[in-house]
Amino acid sequence: MASFLSSIVLPIAVAAVAIVLLLGLVNMMRGGSPNRSQHLMRLRVLLQFIAIVITMVVVWALGR
Predict the structure, then answer these.
(1) Which of 8, 2, 9 is nearest to 51 (CA)?
(2) d(CA 64, CA 51)
(3) For residue 1, is pLDDT > 80?
(4) In whole angstroms, what is the distance from residue 48 CA to residue 63 CA?
(5) Cα torsion angle, 39, 45, 48, 50, sign
(6) What digits encode the pLDDT tens for the residues 19-28?
(7) What are the pLDDT digits (tens) for 7-58?
(8) H or E segment at 2?
């Protein structure tokens, strides 16, 4: 399970965080809706939390 999480799920979670971050930055640079930027940044924080939880589960599983 740890290898599945570390080799497949974790990179997907990190990529999702990066994509949402870039979408938020592009929206701000283009002068887009502040509400959309706020929504994207909240989504980024949620995805970062999920990525950290996955990372901690992998570290815990590999340490067992």
Answers:
(1) 9
(2) 20
(3) no
(4) 22
(5) negative
(6) 999 999 999 9
(7) 899 999 999 999 999 999 999 999 999 999 999 999 999 999 999 999 999 9
(8) helix 2-4
